[in-house]
């Protein structure tokens, strides 16, 4: 979605020029029509500045361009990326 970036931020896209992406987590309410959400993790290189590396990632867990999610049999969340590295 790089071509759809804007010069404005909003609650779901709080970083300008967000080339590393992020994962939004949602929690369904008691009905089928309501939910809450927050940003689960921001993608960033380990050496990103404070505004870029808002999740405090390091060399062991840095990532960019989240593209898919899957849970394994243990309930561990795996984040697929497409950053081309």
From TrEMBL:
Region forming the signal peptide: none
Pfam families, alphabetized: PhoX (PF05787)
InterPro entries per the UniProt record, alphabetical: PhoX
Full protein name: dTDP-glucose 4,6-dehydratase
Lineage: Bacteria, Pseudomonadati, Pseudomonadota, Gammaproteobacteria, Vibrionales
């Amino acid at each position: 979605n790089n071509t759809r970036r804007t010069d404005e931020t909003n609650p779901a896209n709080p970083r300008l020029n967000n080339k590393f992406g992020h994962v939004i987590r949602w929690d369904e309410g008691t009905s089928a029509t309501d939910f809450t959400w927050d940003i689960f993790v921001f993608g960033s290189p380990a050496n990103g500045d404070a505004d870029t590396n808002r999740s405090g990632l390091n060399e062991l867990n840095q990532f960019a361009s989240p593209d898919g999610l899957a849970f394994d049999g243990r309930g561990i969340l795996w984040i697929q990326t497409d950053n081309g590295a």
